[in-house]
Amino acid sequence: MAITNKKKSAKDKIKIKEPDIFIWAGVNRKGKKISGELSANSINELKTQLRKQGITPSRVKKKAKPLFGLGGDKPITPMDIAVLTRQIATMLGAGVPLVQTIEMIGKGHNNGNMRKLLADIAIKLSSGIPLSDCLRDHPIYFDDLYCDLVASGEQSGALETIYGRIATYKEKAEALKSKIKKAMVYPIAVLVIAFIVTSILLIFVVPVFQDIFAGFGAELPAFTLMVIALSEFMQAYWYFGLAAFYIAFFLFKRAHRNSQKLRDNVDKNILKLPVIGDLLEKAAVARYARTLSTTFAAGVNLIDALESAAGAAGNAVFRDAILEVRAEVTSGMQMNLAMRNCNIFPDMVIQMVAIGEESGAVDDMLSKVANVYEQQVDDAVDGLTALLEPMIMAVLGVVIGGLIIAMYLPIFQIGAIV
Asked: Residue 26: which H helix or E strand, with range?
């Protein structure tokens, strides 16, 4: 019984701290007072997120947690918004009125934050406020592209159709994001585990062998001496290394958040990486094509559609290239020629856009391009995972096997002499 209690207390200690929920109020770009709730790790991080959305915060306070941790609500994620969008599209397609749709989804949701969000939207809708304006009051969850598409659907009287396109767009975007994360997280996680295992061996296991070797009275092999020296360094200075890594990571993260120039340089250099760079290029092209196809099909004019695509590109290099295309299209140039001048878009994409412009079906061609590149990203992630698995196992084998060999070399030598 005592053992069970110890296990429970150990589990409680290693719980990961979730972001806090903050209640905020502020003024948006149009000078309108808005408020809401948002999750963040600190007040400063929350204010930074709000400013990125064009909101000037005037009041921010931490939301009180429920007694004994009961009734806590999870923060709203982009995937939650994607699911919500598909639910709205489905119910509108079934002929359910908009206000009733929002109320039904809200009442049936298991996340309290989502229930509050949908209840607020439903109340405003009932008072006659257009859905797009209701959504603009929550810019953290519904960006300008989302709201513009909804406004386009309201103006054209085809909200049901537009919501279906938005739902597809959000689902594809989240699926693409998930694939990229999978490609990045897997090797990083394995390397971190390899580093932890190696550190444990150097700090705790090697010293045991070192004490044994001290009684041999014989000269140790150079490889063994090197490993022992590395072990002594780790034992003496591991906390300095850990602190230096944490400080460097914190400073880089802060600089990356505050410096547009640094973010642009990181985006530019990451595209030069051997395998990851090619994967990110395909993902950026897929986002560009999917966003432009969705906005153009929704009736948004090409100039505004290109601006939305630039914001959704996910990489500074492609963002700047799309803005350059937008500038040249504004001056009267055909989009396929403007894209060719950028020297960044694949020939296949340019040719498909050219065919679309000639046939008057640009949105359809871009949708096909998006499908092709999303499939390529999927295949690339699977290929990358298959390629990395044996490479990582080989690295782990060399590192850990090398440490074991270094520790047993003196024992082998003594056995050979005897």
From this structure: strand 20-27
